DNA sequence: CGAAATTTGTGAATATTATCACAAGGAATT
DNA sequence: AATTCCTTGTGATAATATTCACAAATTTCG
C-alpha cells in the first residue's frame, strides 16, 4: 500500500474515477469492473487497475470493485472528506462565476474570503461575503487559517497577489491567470490554461483544414 | 519541416511559448534563446528546442530565435492569424464569464452564437447577441458556418447539446462539463477540468498534512 | 463440490516523453 | 581572419507512462 512515488497522471485520473463512481452509484449499481470504469473514462482497463493499486487493494477478483467503498476511499485519499476553506483573488467575471460554481461547493471547497484591488468592488457583498481589499489579504488569510487560494485576476496582478497569499500562509494555488507563477518551494501551483486549450483546438482544426 | 507525429504536449507548449514571446517582444527584445524561453516557461531548454523543431527551423546558432518572427510563425501554425467564430452553449455564470473573457477576444475567438435551454434566458441579449433556444442550435450553427463550440452547461445537458452542435457542423469542442463526451471520430474534444485541478491540489496538500 | 467464467493485481514489454551532451553553425571580439 | 564564445539542432540515453498478458483469486453455475 501507499507506494513510494505516485505518477501525477494517476492522481489526476483518481478524480475522474471518483466522478464516474458517483454516477454508477446513483444509478444503483453496487459493483463495477475495471473495464467498465475504463470504458466510461476512455482509458485502458489495466491502467485503471494500476492507478487504483497505487492507493491500496480495493478489488475482488471475479467481481470487481465495490462502488461505494471505492468512492469513499478515493474521497478520503484526496482529502475531500472534509470541507476546505478557500480564498478567491479577483472578483471579475471569472471570479464571480467560480463563486457560484456548484462543482466547487459539491466537493466541499468553500470560498470564505474574496479579494480584489478595484475600489469599486471592495466593500460590496458577494455570496454573503464582503469583498476585501487585496492589501489586507495576508492578514485575513492568516486569521482564517486558509490554505488554498484561487487566482482569477488579470495576469498583471497575479504574481503580486500570489505573493500576498503565500505570505498569509496559502500552500496551494489554483491559478487561472496565464502566467507561470514564481513561488517558493513547498507551495503547489496548479494552472488552469483556458486560452491554451482553445488554442490547441484551433491548431488541430487548422491542421485538418477545417478552420 | 512538419514532422510525422507531433506530441500533444508539444502543441500545448506552443501556446505557452507564444504567450511568453509576446511578453518578451513587448519588453523590446528582438532575440531570445531557448534557455531564456525555458526559464520563463519552467521547462528544459532542450525541450524548447525540440518542440520548436517539430514545426520548422527557426533558430540561429549563437544568437537564438528572432522574437517577432517566431511569434508570428507560431500564431500561423496554430491557425490564430484569422478570427475564429465560436458558439457558446450554456449562458450560466461560467458561460457569461467566458463571454466577457478578454483572453478569448485577444486571440481572435469571437463568440457569435449563444444557446441555452432556460426559457428565462432565451431571447435576452448578451454582449450584443441574442441568446437562442438550444433546440435551434444545429441550424443556426449551420447557417453561420461555425466550427468551434464551447460547452459550459451542467453535466446533465452537455452530451445532448454536444450532439446538436455536431449535427450543425461543429468540429471542435471546448468542454467545461465534467463528463467524457461521446463524439463521432473526427470531432475534437478538449476538456477543461475545473474541479479535477482543485481536487488534485487537495490531494497533494492532504498528503503533506497541510489540510 | 467441481468446472467454467470473471476479473483482479502485476511482471514484462512497449511506447512515449524528457534530458543529456556534443558537433556544427554563426556571432562577437580581437 | 582567426579565435572565442554562444546557441542551435539532434542522436543517444534516461525516465515515465501505458499496454499486454497471464497467474492467482474469487464468484457463479451446473
Explain this structure:
Two copies of one chain form a homodimer. By secondary structure, chain A is an alpha/beta fold. Chain A folds into two domains: 8-77, Winged helix-like DNA-binding domain superfamily/Winged helix DNA-binding domain (Arc Repressor Mutant, subunit A, Orthogonal Bundle), CATH 1.10.10; 84-196, Rossmann fold. Helix content of chain A is 45%, strand content 19%. In chain A, the strands form two sheets. A seven-stranded mixed beta sheet of chain A has the order 6-7-5-4-8-9-10, with helices on both faces. A three-stranded antiparallel beta sheet of chain A has the order 1-3-2. In chain A, a hairpin with a 2-residue loop joins strand 6 (125-126) and strand 7 (129-133). In chain A, helix 2 packs across helix 3. The longest helix of chain A is centred in the first third of the chain and has 19 residues, at 8-26. Chain A is globular, with a radius of gyration of 20 Å. The N and C termini of chain A lie far apart (49 Å). The mean pLDDT of chain A is 95. The interface between A and B is large, with 61 and 62 residues. The structure holds a DNA duplex (30 and 30 nucleotides).
Amino acid at each position: 500500500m501507499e507506494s513510494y512515488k505516485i505518477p501525477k497522471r494517476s492522481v489526476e485520473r483518481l478524480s475522474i474515477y471518483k466522478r464516474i463512481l458517483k454516477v454508477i452509484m446513483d444509478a444503483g449499481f453496487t459493483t463495477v469492473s475495471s473495464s467498465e470504469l475504463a470504458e466510461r473514462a476512455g482509458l485502458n482497463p489495466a491502467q485503471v487497475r494500476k492507478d487504483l493499486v497505487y492507493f491500496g487493494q480495493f478489488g475482488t477478483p471475479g467481481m470487481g470493485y465495490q462502488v461505494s467503498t471505492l468512492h469513499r476511499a478515493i474521497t478520503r485519499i484526496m482529502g475531500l472528506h472534509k470541507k476546505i476553506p478557500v480564498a478567491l483573488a479577483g472578483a471579475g467575471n471569472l471570479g464571480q462565476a467560480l463563486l457560484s460554481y456548484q462543482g466547487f461547493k459539491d466537493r466541499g471547497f468553500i470560498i470564505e474570503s474574496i479579494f480584489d484591488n478595484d475600489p469599486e468592488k471592495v466593500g460590496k457583498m458577494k455570496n454573503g461575503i464582503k469583498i476585501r481589499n487585496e492589501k489586507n489579504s495576508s492578514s485575513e488569510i492568516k486569521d482564517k487559517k486558509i490554505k488554498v487560494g484561487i487566482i482569477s485576476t488579470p495576469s498583471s496582478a497575479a504574481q503580486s497577489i500570489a505573493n500576498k497569499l503565500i505570505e498569509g500562509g496559502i500552500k496551494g494555488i489554483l491559478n487561472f491567470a496565464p502566467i507561470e507563477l514564481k513561488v517558493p518551494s513547498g507551495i503547489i501551483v496548479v494552472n488552469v490554461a483556458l486560452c491554451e486549450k482553445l488554442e490547441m483546438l484551433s491548431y488541430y482544426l487548422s491542421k485538418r483544414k477545417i478552420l
